Sequence to fold (412 residues):
Amino acid sequence: MRTYIFAAISSLALAACGMQGQDNEAEAETVASADTGQDYGYETYSNDNLADTMASDDERFLSEGKTENRGEGARSTDIPDSEDRPVMQAQVVLDRAGFGPGVIDGRMGISTENALRGFQEANDLDTTGELDEATKSALSEWKRIPATRVVTIPASWSEDEYTDIPESTAKQAKLDRMGYKSLDERLAERFHTTVEVLKQLNPDGKPAGMAKATRTPGPDNTPTSSATGTSSSIFRAGQQIRVPNIGGDRIEPGSIDDTSWQQTLASLGVGSDQPEADRIVVSKAGKTLKAYKGDTLIALFTVSSGSSEFPLPIGGWDIVGEAYNPPFAYDPKVLQGDDTAQGEEYTLPPGPNGPVGVVWIDLSKEHYGIHGTPDPETIGRAQSHGCVRLTNWDAARLAGMVSQSTQVIFES
Fold:
């Protein structure tokens, strides 16, 4: 298991990566685990899995063909999905296997094609990027994992703050956190998808496949504003909904020393047990980041990297350290690549919707790093200001794979 590392980067010179968009979220309320009474900042799934209560239970499902209901966030197999979702099923399996399909939406796209190529390369298959018969056969090991599952949104989510933030950088700098603007957005990131996909999986606010006469538990589905914020949500705490069946979210007790980072991993559905990578290779042309252990490809993620103004620095680099939930140094001189540029400098607060998302992997090339994003749908499509940008969940997963001994190679 890779031990998470942290370098005390006192002045994060992250501005070269540019501004990607921000939102606001209050600090998570500390909620005691029902099993231990210990405070983790959220309701934990169980005493031996500190993921949140919406965690997957794949080991039990694969061994018994079903899941066991456990507490408020229990999944239910008594509500079968209303349709087969073969592409989404492949996406959730690829995500588990370390070949990130980006946003899980049940559609083929650049990130899913890249994930398939990575899986095919790792399994000595023709790298077609298609869900062909040979690939389906290799994926059949996981065929009992369904495309979706039903969860209950934790009650504590209704007590958190979801607030739109001002466009002004000066006003943004006064915020405590750059978090989610709605419960919907938070839920979508938790399950590596979009709000639109969640709507499709829950027509009329009910899990697809649920009988019309059956009411979802908890509050109704009327959009409301939180007591402390301004943003409305379609989904509500306590509501039972269908979500993409992402897995690999187990957090082993004692594995994460930083409580805030543990909360972040839980909120992203990312587990603590990640494979060790001794080399990562970023391809500008392929829009991929490949992680290797020796000559074995162990993970692949689609990325955005470089721009005409701030091109990807081709060559080999070292990892200096990692910063979890980092602030952002807004410096016009660095942003514009011009020492004569005018404008105020600001430090923007951390959060999943901050300019560099939830993690900054600092490189030996000044102002450059590998980081998350507030806009997961743009990965592989929009450019990054020189740095390497991933979805927040992929960036968090990568952070668990690398160390200061991991070699970083940027290729054209």
In short: Residues 1-13, 18-35, 65-77, 213-230 have pLDDT under 50 and may be disordered. The first strand starts at residue 24 and ends at 25. The radius of gyration is 21 Å.
